[in-house]
Write a structure and sequence with these properties.
This protein is mainly alpha-helical. It has helices at about 1-20, 35-60, 75-95, 100-110. Keywords: Membrane, Transmembrane, Transmembrane helix.
Length: about 110
């Protein structure tokens, strides 16, 4: 008697699963039967990926809540590089080597 009740519960689960609306799930086959349903599937996937990208951009983009403090924006990086370039040009005009150049040049030179 108990096994019959158990089988009825299993049958009910499969009946509910079949009538749940999953028959319209867009990922039913690898090869499409028509062009337009295939294009609709690709559009659906593109929308999902686009939503994920926008959400991550909001979280980790400039000013985002989960963005680490140490990351700099593109404008800050360009300004830092311009300052470094100007420092190298100024040191070259003075005739002195930039800091660390002597050690780097010595490390790059192979010993004979």
């Amino acid at each position: 008697m108990r096994s019959r009740k158990y089988l009825m519960h299993i049958a009910l689960v499969f009946t509910l699963a079949a009538a749940s609306g999953w028959e319209f799930w867009p990922f039913d086959a690898i090869y499409p039967s028509n062009f337009w349903p295939f294009l609709a599937k690709i559009g659906f996937v593109a929308l999902i990926f686009g939503g994920v990208v926008l959400y991550l951009r909001k979280l980790f983009g400039p000013g985002g809540r989960l963005r680490p403090e140490g990351l700099e924006t593109i404008q800050e990086a360009r300004a830092r590089e311009a300052r470094e370039r100007q420092a190298v040009v100024d040191q070259a005009q003075d005739g002195s080597q930039p800091e660390g150049q002597e050690q780097a040049r010595a490390a790059d030179t192979p010993e004979r």
